[in-house]
Each structure stands twice: as structure tokens, then as C-alpha cells.
Amino acid sequence: MIVVMKVGSPEAEINRINEELTSWGLTPEKIVGKHKVVIGLVGETVSLDPLQIQEVSPWIEQVLRVEQPYKRASRQYRHGEASEIIVSTPDGSVVFGENHPIVVVAGPCSVENEEMIVETAMRVKAAGAKFLRGGAYKPRTSPYAFQGHGESALELLVTAREKSGLGIITEVMDTADLDIISEVADVVQVGARNMQNFSLLKKVGAQPKPVLLKRGMSATIEEWLMAAEYVLAAGNPNVILCERGIRSFDRQYTRNLLDISVVPVLRNLTHLPIMIDPSHGIGWAAYVPTMAKACIAVGCDSLMIEVHPNPKKALSDGPQSLTPDDFDRVMKELAVIGNAVNRWEKQAVLA
User: Where are the alpha helices (DSSP H) in 287-323?
Assistant: First the structure.
């Protein structure tokens, strides 16, 4: 249930309303929009009559029920306004959101060594990326595949950030590693295989860093949004949704089925920013540029693209990784689409 306040509502009155609703056993959450303040009500609201809440104050404009099972993730919860997730990086603040330039995240699947990760960071930064992605802990289908270098890889990510100025996005697989990862990462990633690891989602939601939540390989949109709800309900309001392809019946020609239709669907359902990972979605480097352009055209807020200095020697996901030279060319092509939809940062065009 949400309480929409009238324009110009006094702060003292909003605080008084919060206190009264708290005394009813509810948990009010104040959401400050561009024009109005909305109070989200969490708790047992089924038996409450909206008119009963309306009578609490003459400054209340309307009271609405949130019908979807994902309450905080619902676009209705913010009265139709989109979230803006601001992330601090060494080069300044970066904003994820539908009314801001597209944020490009790039880097290798796994952190392999210092030379490789620093070289990649410098190259993708020069091309216009704002964040470096790189796995320290890697969930792999085979127990014999490369699992990542762990804590030592986190140290290399710190070095790459210091030298490049990029923000860092890296994945957490286990609650035991969350503290050390959140110290290093500017955005903590929950991978597709852990999308419904509810104990991990609760822990990630209890820490302050923004969370990148990838869609599970066979997850419905509602299951994905309910997973986001776990993070939001634990107290972290900063969740970015990432589509990375879902399992399909035809795996001969593409790794997964990249579902770009989720962008308009999610835009209608949720206020959360939307990222797309065409590298995992398509699985082959040759197809990534085309799909990345399509992602921008359909309206995504961010792109994640895998880049490796030598994909043929990559320890993981080499076939879907672009070389730095390829990434340079792709960014120039993406700028054309991004400018056409007024979503491209001007300095990235010049890079």
C-alpha cells in the first residue's frame, strides 16, 4: 500500500503521519520523488481500508494498494517514478536509471593476473566504459573448470581501479565472502545461479553497496522481481536488474536466448534500472555488437560486455569475449544508436 502526499506537504506532517502509521504496526518508508513524496507501507495492510488512512491527514492526496506480490520492486510503489542508483567511483558519481546516459560495464569473465586486468581496465576506460567487471569467485558448471583466484583476484581489482579510475563490479557466491567482496566492489553482483539463493539475497540486502541481480537461467520475470524483493526487503534500495539470457531448446548456434523483450515489460512493472549482458546472452563474440545495438534501441539503461586482451587464451568464456580493439569499434557504433535515442554521454563519443 502507498500513501501519496500532496505537493508541498510539510516535513513535520510527513513525520507525524509516519509515527502514527508506525503505531498501527506498519513500517512506513518515505520515498522522495521529483514532485511528490510517497510513503510506502509495509506490513499487514490487507484488512486496512484506504479511506481509514486517508483520514489521518488532510495532506494525503490518495491511498493506493500495490497489487503485485513484489511490493517494493513494483513501479507503483514509487508512484510511477523510476529509481536512480548513484554509484561513487574514483572518477566521480555514475547514475543508473532510465533518464540518464547508458552505463557501459566491460571486462573479462575472470581476473587472471595483474597485467591482464590492468590492461583491460585501461583500454575499456579509454573507450568509454564506466565500470570494470571481473570475477574473483566464479560459479562454473563443471567442478574441474577454473573457479577464479578468490581473494588475491580482489586485490588485483583494487589495483585496476586505482590505475584506471573505473568502478568495480564483481560477483559474490557465498555469504562467507560477502564482507571482503563488499569492501572491494562498488557494485556487488549476484549471478544467475544464485538468483534464488534467498539466504544470500538477504545478506546482500543487508549491506550498503548497490546490488546487480542477474536473471536466473530459467527464471520467469515474476520470479526475478521476487528475488529483487528479497534484497529490497532486507533494507537495500539499490538494485539493478541484469538480463543475461535464458535457457532455450536451441543451443547449437547461441549460448542462451537473450530476452530483450524484458526491457519494455520491466519498464512497465518496476522502477529498477535495467542492464543487459549480450555476451552471456548470445555466447559468441561475433554476435555481441549486433545484440548490444539492439539492447540500446529497445531502451536498456546499461550494458555489460566481456572484453579480454587475448580471448583465445582466456581461462573462462573466451568465445564470447571481444578484444580491446573490437570493443573500441563497438563503442563507436553504439554511440550512434545511443545518440539517436538521447542516451549516450558526450565524452564517451570522443573516446
Answer: 288-298
